Each structure stands twice: as structure tokens, then as C-alpha cells.
Amino acid sequence: MSLSANDKANVTAIWKKILPKSDDIGDQALSRMLTVYPQTKTYFAHFADLSPGSPQVRKHGDVIMNKIDDCVNHMDDLFPYLSGLSDLHATKLRIDPANFKILAHNLLVVVAAYLPNDFTPEVHLSVDKFLQQIALALAEKYR
Amino acid sequence: MVEWTDFERETIKSIFGKLDYDEVGLAALCRCLVVYPWTQRYFGNFGNLYNADAINANPMVAAHGKVVLNGLDKAVKNMDNIKGTYAELSVLHSEKLRVDPDNFRLLADCLTIVVAARMGADFTAEVQAAFQKFLAVVVSSLCRQYY
Predict the structure, then answer these.
(1) Which ranges carry the Globin domain (chain A) (predicted)?
(2) pTM of the entire structure?
(3) In chain B, what residues touch A35 (CB-CB under 8 Å)?
(4) Exposure on the CB side of residue B74, measured as CA atoms within 13 A
């Protein structure tokens, strides 16, 4: 399910609107994931505070969202671009790749809430494919 | 027996009380057919599903979206016995319609996103958790009669 030219155009277009709210969207997506899918909290035992509004969660939401923002400029070379991060996730973080889908879902929910008129079914399709490609690239080195 | 908190009960009733079933039914089903095109396999007799605009304008899609939302309404009105309420529907989907249960999850995700788009900031994390728990129970009840 690779990205067509149309998908890339859709992602680029909607990301122009996402970028100004990127910090809020990233924070919302991550803290929503921790609330709605509590099993994901198991990966954050080292965080003192996992409650909504927690500064650690917000900062980590920024880290993740900034990288996803960068990936918009690397849709043609996602796998090489994310090679280092894939090593990190595979050898050190060892996050079960099923969780990438869970975070992606929550990111889609937040984008829908923030940009209801722009997040049409076609754009939703393209963004979903984009996030799944990132997930695949991240899982590349797992085994 | 599924345990519902007062917050969860009120949240579900409140959300569904405000939804236009016709509009949301069409929006959710249309989104599912566009975002997960393989789901179109169950709608061979629906005619024109060639692109998003065609799907959105298709009267059979609209009619079916309405059927689905009214089906969900039964669960909203019987939250303490969703399993029993859906026993026949489960047999229908497994024996007659032969729908891969994974599709229920895909439609549930699309419905969540449609509701989020309509509720905006009111669709808080806690509200989302209650809504997704409700849909998970619905999906599980629909899966019960598969063997």
C-alpha cells in the first residue's frame, strides 16, 4: 500500500495546516493513547507523571510529532531516512509494532477534531497510508 | 457482564442523543469504503462505488449507513445486555452476510473519527475512551456467533 502521487499531495497539503498546531496535536495524540489504550502506559514506567497535561508527556509528544513532520519532507525516502530510528526501536525501545497502529489511530482522531472540514475521507486515506508507511519503516529492523 | 460507570452511560447516551443518524451513518460508512476499499467487497450490488464522491452520493450507501446507526441505537438503549440484543444480528453477519469481523473494527474506527470531527474539543480523551469501549463491546457481541 505504497504512497501514490495523490497521497503525497494530500499529506503535504494537510500538513501545512497541521504544522502550526503541531505541538498541541502531538501532545493530544500521545496522552489520548495513554488514556484510551492503557496498556501503552507500560512503555512509560520511567515517566514520573502520565496524567493529562504532564510536561514529560507533552515533551515526548513534541519529539514524536516533530519527527512525523520531518517525514512529510521525506516521503520518497522514508525507509533510509528512518533507518537509525528503526535501529533504536528494534534494539533498545522494543515497542511492539501493534502500538504504532494505535498511536496512528489517535493521531487521526485528533486531526479530525482539529480540522474537520479538511480531513475528508480521501485525505484520511492518504494520511493513514502515510502513517502506516512510517510504522513499516520503524519496524524494518525488528527481525 | 460489562460494567459501565455512570460517566460512560451518560457519555454514550449524550453522544448518540445528539447525532443525526442519517448524516453520521452515511459519513461513517462512506469513510470506511474510501479509507479501506477492500470493505467494498460486501457491497457488490450497490452500483457506483468508483470514487469518494460517487460513494458519498450513492443512495444505497446512505440507506445502509442509516441501518447501521439504528442498529447501534439498539445497543445504546440496552447497554446492560448488548450481547443478548445482538444475538440475531451476530448470526446474520456470520452465517448469511459472511463479514470478516475485522471489518467491524474498521467501521468502528471510522465512526470514532466522524464523531471526533463533529464534537471537536468536546471529544476529550475520557469521552473517546467511553465511546471506544462501547464500540468494542458492540463488536465483540457481533463476533459471538462466529464459529
Answers:
(1) 2-143
(2) 0.91
(3) 125-126, 128-129
(4) 17
